[in-house]
Amino acid sequence: MGNTGARPLDGITIVEVGQLIAGPFAATILGYFGADVIKVEQPGRGDPIRGWRLLDRGTSYWWRSLGRNKRSLTLDLHEAEGRELLRRLIDRADVLVENFRPGVMEEWGLGPSTFEKSNPGLVFARISGYGQTGPYRHRHGYASVCEGIGGFRYVNGFPGQPPVRPNLSLGDTVTGLHAALGIVMSLLARNRLGRGQTIDVAIFESVFNLMESVVPEYSGAGEVREPSGTTLTGVVPTNTYPCGDGKHVIIGGNGTSIYQRLMRAVGRPDLAERPDLQTNEGRVACEAEIDQVLASWCASQPSTDVLAVLERERVPSGPIFSVADMFEDPQYQARELFEEVEVGERRFAVPAMVPRLNETPGRTTWPGPELGEHTDQVLAELGVDADARADLRARGIV
Q1: Is the dihedral of CA 53, 58, 63, 64 positive or negative?
Q2: Is 245 one of the catalytic residues?
Q3: What's domain 13-210+339-394's superfamily in CATH?
Q4: What is the pLDDT of residues 246-305, one digit of tens each?
Q5: Is the N end or the C end of the chain the one with fewer CB atoms within 10 Å?
Q6: Catalytically annotated residue among 10, 172, 291, 385
Q7: pLDDT at res. 116
């Protein structure tokens, strides 16, 4: 929360409706880089993320990070007056981010066509599990399920065992990144076209976008990439190895010159020079032999010694960090990857966001606000006077 200069999205207003992770994460990124994000929440309840995982006096630490830089406005969208206020808010916005089930915004009279005349410059970003079209459009699209249908879970795990999920909502986060990219591209296109457009972002497609060569290998060669544990199919050596101190290291020794340095470093110059191991194809054929050599060498000494040798020999390698390790690491500190926020008398860190812009960097201005903290402020900007706001509040509309 140090710099106070201009940011690239200063002057852009984003209205965020929906909840949980994918849509809100997209808006968090854009708010970090200067957009005025107005988050619309249900009165009395708010975004469920406020109550997920570890709590600090009833509010999650996660919310303080995901809700940073946003203004919280409560509106009951099940009531016509709440929807009308939202319509007025969207009419003044540059971007709408919504992640309701496809069709909900249309049912409320708030679909993209509603704003074609009243706000032709609007960028209407729609996030859902399966997209706005197709036979699956109305299915519940949680990231965990979409990671499966998008192909990620199939390749993630060990042969013969159930697929593994990372202990993160990876599909949601990846989708948020895709949505943020689409929004920025649409804002750039608006400068040229003179109008906004609708963005259709599906969680399963965002996951599918990570599948590298899986599609052309299947289409061109009939090859289905299978799970491969801690290795990467068709690239050798690259693996995770346990060391003598019980910790693990990652070694990426693919690339012939790197492989040769690695084999010499572990005391096997014979393997470094062996003619059949001078190409990746040859090393793939001998993967088990190479992995056994590296596993034995790592197991014979502490991870610190392993990494010191490999660093000296310029072999890509590193430890596996927990969040506690990150806080102690000098590279994390040098890159200023933790930003301290204040909630009441409590102070704690949230992650800084990337990419880094040297002229117009982003920043955390405030942590996720209390539910409805900015309701009066935002409604006043819409021209709703104090008496009308009090009436709306008394009737539970806000």
Answers
A1: negative
A2: no
A3: Crotonobetainyl-coa:carnitine coa-transferase; domain 1 (3.40.50.10540)
A4: 999 999 999 999 999 999 999 999 999 999 999 999 999 999 999 999 999 999 999 999
A5: N
A6: 172
A7: 97
